[in-house]
Amino acid sequence: MATITFQFTVVLTGTTGLVLLTFSLGFGVVASIAASWLLRPMIEELPRKSQQRITAAPLVAYVALTAVFVLSVALLLAPSDRVMATMLLFLVWGYHSLYGSGVEPSSWAYERLRGRLRRAAPLRVAVHACGLVGVLLLLQHARTNSPYSTVFVGVMATVTLGVLGASLKVFVRVRRLCAALDQHAHKLILELEKFRAAPEEKQPVEEAWGNLRRTLSHKIDTGLSISGVFVLPAATITELHHLVYRAIRAAGADDRVHRQVIARLRMLRIACVGRTDTLA
User: What does pLDDT average to over the chain?
Assistant: First the structure.
């Protein structure tokens, strides 16, 4: 009787703590949105570097709160209720897969590209780990009530190896994407410089921009259009598209537009330094 009472107390304490934590997370998100709206006029008066740090706060808060939530599920709930812990871990995995990249700040898109390339793969792999732990908890729960425990061990090992392989592919994808970005941006820079000397040859510039734009439209960490971290926001890609065609229409005569395009392309290349792998 004492053992049953103790177990019930542990479950109740863990569940109550998790509910309170979930409520706190929701309240924190709402408070952050309201605070950002109220403080926006003050933020816009700060120096550029300070603005970049402050607008990155939602991303930092998202990562920190998600980590706290996952640890709370693993430590408080998993020992007593594996099924519920599995569902909550799947919730984290599903939320990040569908919307998690929405916390990425879209302002200063070129300046923040290096950071996006750096953290996209580790965050995606961390979320894969959440899903993996959820699957293992569910399989372990089924294994304890099944006479075919050996089969479940094999399934758990297979699932683990599959997730590890998928996680490795995420890092390979990021390096391939960086290599493609660097290559296509460099090609467009060369074609723009040639175009200034021979304004009648605009087709190579359009082809080079088409290749770069297709690369920019990809997600960094996934091959899905609805999931993953953007290379550049759609509005920024559209702006660059208009700049490129303004340079084409000016036939190299508008130095200001030409410098703007070249500066943005060089920022793309700088963000990819150290992350390219043409052999991946």
Answer: 79
